[in-house]
Amino acid sequence: xxxxxxxxxxxxxxxxxxxxxxxxxxxxxxxxxxxxxxxxxxxxxxxxxxxxxxxxxxxxxxxxxxxxxxxxxxxxxxxxxxxxxxxxxxxxxxxxxxxxxxxxxxxxxxxxxxxxxxxxxxxxxxxxxxxxxxxxxxxxxxxxxxxxxxxxxxxxxxxxxxxxxxxxxxxxxxxxxxxxxxxxxxxxxxxxxxxxxxxxxxxxxxxxxxxxxxxxxxxxxxxxxxxxxxxxxxxxxxxxxxxxxxxxxxxxxxxxxxxxxxxxxxxxxxxxxxxxxxxxxxxxxxxxxxxxxxxxxxxxxxxxxxxxxxxxxxxxxxxxxxxxxxxxxxxxxxxxxxxxxxxxxxxxxxxxxxx
Length: 355
Ligand code: MRU
Hints:
Blueprint: E1 14-17, E2 20-24, E3 35-38, H1 41-49, H2 56-72, H3 79-94, H4 101-115, H5 122-151, E4 160-163, H6 178-187, E5 193-197, H7 204-215, E6 220-223, H8 228-233, E7 239-242, E8 246-248, E9 253-256, H9 259-268, E10 273-276, E11 282-283, H10 300-303, E12 304-305, E13 308-309, E14 322-325, E15 332-335, E16 338-340, H11 344-353
Parallel strand pairs: 4-5, 4-7, 5-6, 7-10, 8-11, 10-15
Antiparallel strand pairs: 1-2, 2-3, 8-9, 9-14, 12-13, 15-16
Helix pairs in contact: 1-2, 2-3, 2-4, 2-5, 3-4, 4-5, 5-6
5-S-methyl-1-O-phosphono-5-thio-D-ribulose binds at residues 54-57, 100, 165, 167, 171-172, 177, 204, 243-245, 255-256, 321.
């Protein structure tokens, strides 16, 4: 296994150290910074489904690493036998979380590599899949930096930017999508401040966005989700920028539950609503948001915070983890190939074709 030197000034949720893949346990942040070591695809699948690692691009990266581990451990005489076992590994990883398309995108890319190289030996396929997983990891960081360059001109000097959930370094290989745009604006010398929605129930805003922005010394103010409208009505928000888990062919955006509410509020207050996402998040196979599967998570995420019970025993609960923001509420979509606006159906097709 390859080992990269650890640069602790850069926030990364996944790292390779001493010949081992480690993931920062995002369930424990900001109170504890605990890294777990992973060596099998089953362990990686568990880390994704239990949200040790989360965020659309980061779970794509993790899935690719899991697929590489699975491939490494396959015992097969022929490349065809290898491939059928590899498909089964990918199926397990694909079943971990349904909404973020980056997960399946990364696994499809791994499978495509293997399938299009079936004339090679099993050993060569295993080596190639290791390179492919590492390439997916490195490319994600590069995409985020490019997204930052395209997106930062949209943020004025002095902008007060609201974000929802965590679309930062922790949700990607590094740098972040929405927070990457903010990082790029800060690097360009702009005075930017962030208002972070706490993002009930998993509290990605309170626990993760707040943590990583404070670590990078970017001014951040935490609010409860139900305060965004008031702040907008008081003229305290200049724009909204969020990430995405899947963008349909017509520009409808699935993202963390509560994003839709923020987008409606932004429209009502004539505040620009930007989405930053890599092209791997665009899924042209779904024609609109109604076709995007929405993950429902456990009741306990709503009824409890850690071991503290908040609601009566036996209460009926709904816990959809994502919602869909219709494209007409989206001012622009920032990608690593440029900013998409206007006729999303036509423009997204063009930008995906550039891949
Ligand atoms: O449930 P999560 O924490 O995986 O959800 C994450 C989000 O909704 C993010 O906003 C999205 O994945 C974009 S991350 C760059």
